[in-house]
Design goal:
heterodimer, A: 153 residues, alpha/beta, Mannitol-specific EII, Chain A, B: 541 residues, alpha+beta, TATA-Binding Protein, two-stranded antiparallel sheet, 7 strands, 7% strand
Chain lengths: 153, 541
């Protein structure tokens, strides 16, 4: 329900070139930075890497959800990307990840960020939906899949 | 009291009375909770009956100059001294203030649908059965607008959810469709009961009774609702500002005391306005309930509550005159039966209309049965205002005891077995609940983690409120989504509807990670033992 509001044409990406966890995170933060000039890149990178240090955000089924909380944003920012090749992301199931969902949210407001991740995770739990995401040829197809594909609708 | 009893003598008696009350109340309360698995309220009430002026307390004591400890004199309105009754009155203000604090008005307004229908049905049905019973059993009552009839109606309405909440949380049924409906219905029950009480008190004070003056009734209704809505709205608008100002003090202790002071102020004002004190206390609690410090205030009043609330229940027990009880015992039984019937039918029928099946309706009806503090407060109020005499007060106490004793076993039986929803709607709804639980190394840590989780839910725009008076059970609500959090010993359990499962799992994970980070930073402090050395100082030379 809220995915449409949070995601837009410029916050999704297919064929992300990175081949390591570090590169992927930097590229994802790059997508988020395009949202606003006032964002402090170092703060966001620090927050995301700090969270990774606590526990890897690599989940199962090739999905990773790197995220961080910073003071320089005032609302939830999100990016969704599919990498060109599967990348080792310290996932729970030990397999490489190819679908990445990043959120950056204000420190004191965690509701929307968790809600967003919960909704995305509900969608991605479906095998067919994951296949559709991985098969997306361009950004429009990827965005369309997320905006249409409600798991429980 | 003797002629010219000195003030010191009066105070000495008061202090001794409080000693006996506290020891007896705590002792009986303990026995009730530990061995009889009943709420301590019942033990405290029975303690009052036993040590009160009509039983042991009435025995003349040689060291008090041949006077009994709880002497009754004909000049007194009540069988207890005004100074002792003062403590009980403050106790009732504390109780109602806290129950107001524990209500979440926003949740209530959001849940106005199903819950209010069930609550409304229960209140209306039991009110009329109560009032009609007065018509049938009190010889000179001829109209249901007789103050006595109205009071017997009011007393029959109050539900005390504490017992139900405890049982359902132990059975893990608090977030079931039935559990949620009961909890929201109780809020409506409380609010409606208090408004009705305001109305009846207003009517009584203005000498209503013989014949119905509809214009007077209208004026009083207006006044009651006016005070109620006016002070609630003003309270809710002002409460965040007041607490914001008070938070500048950076001292939650002071904030809690001032908040309680405000409750006393509003209690006094509502008495001045011709309503009852507890109404003001409840309204103040309600106004503060939607502020972020509500839980902090409640926690800081726990000590006061532990002392003064047993005094209140014990004094209520003391007001029971056994001599008057004999002649109304049959009425008491019938009144209790009608009260039970009223709740079962009044709450069960709307539940049936809302899509529950017979079993679900029975569960909801039974969940609304237990009576408790509010019943006693209302009955005590009837006694002090002189509307009901000792015998009707006895009827109220009998009925409260019976419905509290009868409800838990029925509730346990009713909640056995499958879904309480009709098949078409139900199967999904009740199979829907996900249980996530994890253990902590110690109870202390579990408590700490639980309070952090509640904060985390708050930051995620949920409204957690405590539902168990004595057990740590919380419901966090956002719109229609309800999540239950509870701690059993070292175990923390979170129940969430499956639509919220992903959200809850993510939130818990993030919070546990944040906690680990916190503990790591504590370890850094612990790494150098300079801190402890400094603190120990030269203790051993």
């Amino acid at each position: 329900m809220r995915l449409k509001k949070v995601l837009n044409r410029s916050s999704v990406r297919v064929g992300l070139p990175g081949s390591t966890k570090d590169e992927i995170i930097r590229e994802m933060v790059g997508i988020i930075l395009a949202d606003d000039r006032d964002f402090i890149k170092e703060d966001i990178l620090n927050a995301v890497f700090q969270r990774e240090a606590q526990m890897s955000t690599g989940m199962k089924n090739g999905i990773a959800i790197p995220h961080g909380k910073v003071d320089c944003v005032t609302r939830l920012h999100a990016a969704v990307a599919v990498s060109a090749e599967p990348v080792d992301f310290d996932c729970l199931d030990g397999l490489p990840a190819q679908i990445f969902v990043m959120t950056v949210s204000p420190t004191n407001q965690t509701g929307p960020h968790l809600q967003f991740l919960a909704e995305v995770s509900a969608l991605l739990a479906d095998d067919d939906f994951r296949r559709r995401i991985l098969a997306a040829k361009n950004e429009d197809e990827l965005l369309k899949a997320f905006c249409e594909g409600r798991a429980d609708a | 009291m003797h002629e010219g009893a000195s003030l010191t003598h009066l105070m000495m008696v008061l202090v001794l009375q409080l000693t006996v009350i506290l020891l007896a109340a705590k002792g009986f309360g303990f026995v009730c909770v530990r061995f009889l698995r009943q709420p301590s309220v019942l033990g405290e009430l029975v303690a009052g009956m036993i040590v009160g002026p009509f039983a042991l307390g009435g025995i003349a004591l040689p060291f008090l100059g041949g006077e009994p400890l709880f002497a009754i004199s004909s000049e007194m309105v009540l069988p207890v001294t005004p100074q002792l009754y003062g403590f009980a009155t403050v106790g009732s203000v504390v109780l109602l203030f806290i129950s107001g604090l524990e209500t979440d008005l926003k949740t209530f307004l959001r849940f106005a649908g199903s819950g209010s229908l069930v609550g409304f049905g229960g209140v209306v049905c039991s009110y009329f059965l109560g009032a009609l019973s007065a018509l049938a059993f009190i010889p000179d009552v001829v109209s249901i607008f007789d103050p006595r009839a109205m009071f017997m109606g009011i007393i029959a309405t109050a539900t005390s959810v504490g017992i139900t909440a405890r049982i359902l949380s132990e059975r893990r049924r608090l977030s079931s469709p039935e559990g949620v409906t009961i909890l929201s219905a109780v809020v409506f029950d409380d609010v409606l009961g208090i408004v009705l009480l305001a109305l009846v008190i207003g009517l009584v004070r203005m000498g209503g009774g013989e014949g119905v003056d509809w214009r007077l009734l209208g004026r009083i209704t207006l006044k009651a609702f006016g005070f109620w809505i006016g002070s609630t709205v003003i309270g809710i608008v002002l409460a965040p500002r007041i607490t914001k100002g008070l938070k500048e003090l950076k001292d939650l202790e002071t904030l809690a005391v001032i908040a309680f002071g405000l409750a006393l102020l509003l209690a006094g004002l509502s008495e001045l306005a011709g309503l009852a004190m507890i109404i003001g206390a409840y309204v103040m609690g309600l106004a503060l309930s939607s502020t972020d410090v509500a839980e902090d205030i409640r926690r800081r009043l726990e000590g006061l509550q532990a002392f003064i609330v047993p005094v209140f229940f014990c004094v209520m027990g003391m007001l029971v005159d056994f001599r008057a009880l004999g002649e109304v015992f049959v009425y008491g039984l019938i009144y209790a039966g009608l009260g039970i019937f009223g709740k079962l039918v009044g709450c069960g029928l709307p539940a049936l209309m809302l899509g529950f099946n017979g079993k679900g309706a029975l569960r909801i009806g039974t969940g609304m049965l237990p009576r408790g503090e509010v019943t006693l407060i209302m009955a005590g109020l009837g006694l002090t205002t002189g509307v009901i005499g000792p015998s009707l007060f006895g009827v109220a106490v009998i009925s409260m005891l019976i419905s509290s004793l009868v409800a838990p076993p029925i509730l346990l039986v009713a909640f056995r077995g499958g879904s309480g929803f009709r098949k078409t709607l139900g199967e999904v709804k009740s199979a829907d609940l996900k249980v996530i639980s994890f253990a902590m190394p110690t109870i202390h840590l579990a408590d700490f983690v639980l309070s952090r989780l509640l904060d985390a839910f708050r930051r995620a725009d949920y409204f957690p409120r405590r539902v168990g008076h004595r057990k740590p059970v919380y419901i966090a609500q956002k719109d229609a989504a309800q999540i239950t959090l509870l701690r059993q010993d070292r175990l923390i359990q979170v129940n969430a509807p499956s639509a919220q499962e992903g959200f809850v799992r993510l939130l818990l994970t993030e919070e546990i990670l944040a906690l680990k980070e916190l503990f790591r930073s504590v370890e850094k402090v612990a790494d150098t033992d300079a801190t402890e050395r400094n603190i120990l100082g030269d203790l051993f030379g």
